[in-house]
Amino acid sequence: MTHCILIGAPVDEGQRRPGCLMGPAAYRVAGLAGTLTALGHQVEDRGDVAPLPPGTETCANPAVHHLPEVIAWTRALAQATEDAMATGMPIIMGGDHALAMGTLTGVARHAARANRPLFVIWLDAHSDFHTVETTTSGNLHGTPMAYAHGLPGFDPFPPFPTPIPGENICMFGIRSVDPAELAAMQPTEITVNDMRVLDEHGITAPLRAFLDRVRAAGGLLHVSLDVDFLDPSIAPAVGTTVPGGATFREAHLVMELLHESGLVTSLDLVELNPFLDERGRTAKLMVDLVGSLMGRKVFDRPTRSFG
After folding, report:
1. Per the structure, how many domains does the chain have?
2. Is 126 part of the annotated catalytic residue set?
3. Using one digit for the tens of pLDDT, what is the confidence trace for 167-188?
4. Residue of 13, 271, 277, 288 marked active site
5. CA atoms of 214 and 124, how far apart (whole Å)
């Protein structure tokens, strides 16, 4: 049994398409707590995080928007996640992917205090490896992985506590990378299992290879699951759709393999925009995937209806 701590992160400022702030409510309505309880886990919902009022921070890149707000969210979510790590497994219900700047900070602080290495699986169509200086869209949801890796170019954000080495990061399902991101990633040792790799080698071997590294190091494993990891045909409720994503079966296989590893210690659910959903279809699928991550087997899955 796992003590699952649900934390709402209604972050909408990391991109320009309104709606992600409704994500935490959608996960609750779609039955996330009930799904976890039915699997035998203890569930504690700590409600939605509320950041302190934003400051007056600025940066040299004129494209960047909502900088003070995202910094305020980063500080608040770092504290909420660090507190939750002390007593259970935080499941952060987002909210756009800028929230990971906070959640990864909190998890990294906990890992450092526990003297254990932190590993990250980034389930996403995008690498999110821009910095505050390099982003041309100005959308800070495209920066959290570069921030956690310790890249320069993040003033005036608080410095990331213990930058995560490239060999401890696995990007899975990537299929949209900007030139500046690619240039920044090339010198690193980040494992990039893009869709070409997964098409050629399947899901299981690349994922198990990374999980073996986590296990050998005695690491903590943070999973960040973006709705756009999934193919838009099955998960339309995201403002950054990229064709060619994971299928229903592939996504559930990833979750079941993660569960069987016994290594996952924290989870982000990001970029769900209920305003773009079809009768709760995407929210229900994301909850179903969390069920697989937390122990539901394929033969346990009930017949579902979107009606």
Report:
1. 1
2. yes
3. 999 999 999 999 999 999 999 9
4. 271
5. 20
